[in-house]
Fold this protein.
Amino acid sequence: MSAIILESSLVHYEALGRGKPLLFLHDWLGSWRYWVPTMVDMSSSHRAYALDFWGFGDSDKVATRYSIPGYVGQVELFMDQMGISSVPIIGHGLGGIVGANFALAHPERVEQLMTVCTPLSAGDIARSLSGYNGGENPAKVILGRRLKSYEEVDIEAAKTDANAVVQSVRYVMGHNLLDVLEDLEIPVLLVCGREDPIIQPPSDEVLESLSYNVYPFIFETAQHYPMLEETSKFDRLLRDFLVHKDNWDEIEVKDEWRRRMR
C-alpha cells in the first residue's frame, strides 16, 4: 500500500506502469481497487495513478473535506506531491464530477477528461443514492439487488465513511454539472451505461445541448461499472480517446460500442 500525507491527512493511492501519467478517480461506491484491470492495461504505456478520496478506502476520514471543493483540493495536492503538472483524468460517478470541477478550476492541468456514469444533473441520480442516509456498507444499501455484484466494490465500499457519501451527494444535488461542462474547452468523453439503475444516461434533449468538445458514448448493455462489465471494450475506448482526442472520427467507427449521436 502506498500513502502520502496531504495537509496532515493520510491519502492512500496506487500506481502502476511507466510513461505519461493518467489519473483515475473513483465513485461513491468503492475506491481505487475496481480500476485495477484498466490500470494494468494502461501500464504498458502510461503511469496510472488511482487515489482514495478522503472518507473512502484507506484514506483518512476527514469530515470537513467531504465536498466537491474538498476533493478538488485533494486532487491538486496529490498532483503537486507526485510532480504531475498535467494529466488526462478518468473519473467515475463522484470522480467524474471532481475531475470536471478540477478541470474548471485548473484548466492548464487537465489535458482531457473521461467521465463514466456521472450525473449531469440532480435528476439523473437514483433515489437510492440521493436519499441515502447512511448504512454499514453503502454499496449494499444503495445498489441492493439491482446491480451485478463485484468483490472489488463490496470490499472497499465497506471501508467508506457514510458521511462522505451523504455530504458529497448533497453538494452534487445542488449543482448542475452541465454548467461546468459548458465552460470546459478540453476534450470530454461522457461514458454511460444504458442499463445503469444508479445514474440515468442523458436524454436526447441534453445530448443536443452539449458543447462541441463534449461527446457521449453509451454502452448499450452495461450498468454502473462498464470498466468491470465490459473491460476489454472499455479499455480500448479509453486508449482510442487518449490517442485520438482531436479526431473523434477515429473513435466513432469502432463497432464494439455505439455512440449516441446528437
About this structure: The chain has one domain: 2-252. Residues 68-82 form the longest helix (15 residues). The CA atoms of residues 38 and 108 lie 25 Å apart. Residues 252-262 have pLDDT under 50 and may be disordered.
